Amino acid sequence: MNADLERLIALQKLDSTADAARKQLASEPEHERVLEARLEAARQEVAAAKDRVAVNKSARAALEKDVAMQQGRLSKFREQGMAVKTNQEFHAIQHEIAFAQTEIKKLEDTMLERMIEADDLTAALKSAETQLAAETKAIDAERKSGSAAHIEMQATLERIATERAALVSTTAPSKIVPLPRTAEPSTRNSPEDLTNPIEGDAAETTSREPAAKRHSMYLNI
Fold first, then answer.
1. Which of 38, 133, 173, 210 has the highest local Cβ count within 10 Å?
2. CA separation (Å) from 128 to 35, 63, 118, 134, 138?
3. Domains in the chain, please, with CATH?
4. What distance in Å separates the CA atoms of residue 73 and residue 17, rounded to the nearest whole number?
5. Three-class SS of residue 30?
């Protein structure tokens, strides 16, 4: 195979490799956005899980407050029941006691549901935190790998630039084929001058003679 052709093929390979390296470098910002989006999604999941745990905790605190209030009413009605003097007062107090007990039962049932829910929410939070830790570790590893790949691609481009310059210099022709020289502008004014060149001093003298005289001289030749 012709040496220049081999060098041209090598140049094409270098250019293809360089294009691939540049494309990989150009894709790095988008890849970083994808990684950051993954990390942000994991962070948001942890934040949402913490919010759900906090809402559940607030709900349980409110229920505990309501239970305490109903228990206070219950104690009050029971004390009042010890001092009633009529059946009507007794039945009224018993009604209030029964109502307070019913409310306490409802509140305690709801609180139990919230406690069970709290266990599930706490487990979900731990899972989200574990997922965030795993994503953080994986993304850090990808970023380190990407950083190493970036350095490698930069080195590859520098190496290709050096190799390409060397190939281009050796591919240049060793001999330059001379181009045909363009004739200098003639000072002759008649077609006969092209077939009757006048050299030396005669040419200079002729160039100074009037055109009519020179024309007459050419006609007498």
1. 38
2. 17, 27, 15, 10, 15
3. 3-171 (1.10.287.1490), 189-221 (no CATH)
4. 84
5. helix
